[in-house]
What does this fold into?
Amino acid sequence: MVEVQAVLLSGGSGTRLWPLSREAYPKQFLPLVGDDTMLQATWRRVAALSSHAPIVVANEDHRFLVAEQLRVIGAPTPRIVLEPVGRNTAPAIAAAALIARADPQHEDGDPLLLVLPSDHVVRDDAAFRAAVIAATPAAEAGALVTFGIVPQAPETGFGYIHADTGEGVRKVLRFVEKPDAATAQRYLDEGGYYWNSGMFLFRASRFLEELAKYRPDILAAARAACEHLDPDGEFLRLDRDAFAASPSESIDYAVMEKTDAAMVLPVDIGWNDVGSWSALWDVSEQDADGNAHHGDVIAIDSRNSYAYAQRLVALVGVDDLIVVETDDAVLVAAKDKVQEVKQVVARLKAEKRSQAALHREVHRPWGSYDSVDAGPGFQVKRIKVKPGAALSLQSHNRRAEHWIVVRGTARVIRNNDVFELFANQSTYIPIGAKHRLENPGAEILELIEVQSGDYLGEDDIIRYEDVYGRG
Amino acid sequence: MVEVQAVLLSGGSGTRLWPLSREAYPKQFLPLVGDDTMLQATWRRVAALSSHAPIVVANEDHRFLVAEQLRVIGAPTPRIVLEPVGRNTAPAIAAAALIARADPQHEDGDPLLLVLPSDHVVRDDAAFRAAVIAATPAAEAGALVTFGIVPQAPETGFGYIHADTGEGVRKVLRFVEKPDAATAQRYLDEGGYYWNSGMFLFRASRFLEELAKYRPDILAAARAACEHLDPDGEFLRLDRDAFAASPSESIDYAVMEKTDAAMVLPVDIGWNDVGSWSALWDVSEQDADGNAHHGDVIAIDSRNSYAYAQRLVALVGVDDLIVVETDDAVLVAAKDKVQEVKQVVARLKAEKRSQAALHREVHRPWGSYDSVDAGPGFQVKRIKVKPGAALSLQSHNRRAEHWIVVRGTARVIRNNDVFELFANQSTYIPIGAKHRLENPGAEILELIEVQSGDYLGEDDIIRYEDVYGRG
It folds into this structure.
């Protein structure tokens, strides 16, 4: 019986799948293929191999998303390791390994770590689980096993692993950089070369030993960051200064390319890293014309295109096109030019525009708000509050607020008054009034807020108390 | 000194410029080029030639749009002739001619009619006015003068007029149907062929005489429709049965191709009928890459494309594309396939979807409403009421309404109460309450309405009194 400790890496800045993916909500949190988000699908893929809570290494800004998305699919409450800054995969996996070794749920203190990016698609989950089981004896014997993807095409966008001959798990001959087209074709023709997927299986102790051998500086930084762990509910906050002191290095460079213990198991599991809109078209179900659609799409005389619609999108006479329509931005891109999408994001960032980082619907620990309308002196938000959640006790200097409950129950504190509102009831929060909104019910609370005032920025807020520890 | 009676034809069903143009709001009412709508631009083009109020022949459903659009540019209060059904241009112009002859503002009872479609672009207004002045002597002498556009390309989408040789106004040799490509090229090479623009100048009496000669049935129907004119404020409503009895025929077929009095003045005035999205790209200002943009558009590595954005549209690596983004629908079309846009509209109509006929913002005689958000059991509308306007006295059986004023002043009748609300004040209309909303102020009234109930259709309305005569 195989038993692993899942380590889910929740990195990614979200520029390549803009405008669906944004800095504050990158692709691992989106349901790009199927109903699950990619993070959820990653956990479900390996849940049968693990009776332990997963360790998720995540960006501090995404901590509530990770917690919420795993909670709603009934995953065991995860250990969410918060990176104060990004330092690539080697320090992140080192911290996860140290935390796993110290975790009392592992009696022997040395679990098998199954390290997985949380933003890849795997079509054949069963084949992947079978591969993990097949790799386990080698990992238990001390190997650092990586899963090499059997290439389907001469891809130049991935690194390759040159494997020894043989069956099943075998020695890595060498890791090779992203090849040019001719080299990629030669790899495909010769065989024995596999795409480097960034998925690993090894004993925590073995990884740490090898890291100590080749990059003791990284190990030292990770160890220091974990010594001063700042526990915050389900979150394990790495020490900022200690972690920031680590070199930024991938596990490949730091360990896998150097260690003699590197082994590879070639796998054919329907893997795709969804690194671009054209990759998403590749993995999406296509109709007879080669079109893949999500949402309300009408296609006339169009072929081999991907369209994502939140409202209605009509395609007329187009081929090989990507169309992505969201609340506040529409992307129209030639399928062979999707790498240039990041130029759009760069320009939005340079102009400090919200569409680079945020969706129109903004997620908060207590729920979310969506700016559905705005005009001179007013804006309208739809606010959702999770069952049992509460916003901070706050006041505003420049705006008044009207609240109309449209679903669920609101408990309102307004200066010295406390009262409940049900669907179709409303209240008014004058400028300067201290107020708090809570959802005391078991279902979601939804309300329409009409803000009125001469300044309506999010920064006009004085917080008096906040259960989520925000200033 | 030239003095004409402008007759503006406000037809057009709005399918070719979907989704910007809709059945309820077709292209003559849109500011497609410049700040004026095309109807407004048409009036401004000829206002210097006419001291009389224009006659506008319009679809009954568009009457408030016509009135409002001409009012806001300070045009004299027009005679708006309402067609109960569309019967093409011959009956429409016949009715306008009969009405003009009977109009006491014309002392001699026989004005020069300048008949103009209201949905064409003319780049060189001064050249057009000069052409009208040049055509006047011939029209005064009894000719039916048409303006022929000097062709810029071998267009196959227009009918042509073969003109006699000579200078200025000259005899029409014949009208020819839309040609094939080779014929169109020959017309261009030979010269003497002009595009049929559908613009005319003639004495009202002369047109009616020629119509009596060739199509007395159409004249009789128009006369009968005008005998029972139903005046309704500034609207002149043609008798439904009498007008419907007219054959549906164009002025070209009914009169111009038959009469010996047809003459043509070739003009080079920057004319475009904006009959498709690619035509709109043609007449729009283009940047160095050939892109024409309206609104918030970011174009990376893209050429010869037209993009209309209400939010943000990003183009990446695309050529010869049309992208039109509205509140409730996005069109992405190859520029050489824009004729197929009507297939999208046909499909929406077949599926009885609102996007075929209506924008998200719906215009009413009193103002407009825009459905900015909706969810189970509620919807949010932004309502604008013009100064001095009032909605009907009404009630709803299935929904309650919350109103929050965000601009201007509202006068509210709610059962037996009458009260005023100012910006940042709100009220509640319970299910079943008789209510009316008025704007007693001099500026626009804007409010947010949150509807709450188990059924939220527009047809849940009981009207008790309506100043606009709606049932």
Remarks:
- The two ends of chain B are 48 Å apart (CA to CA).
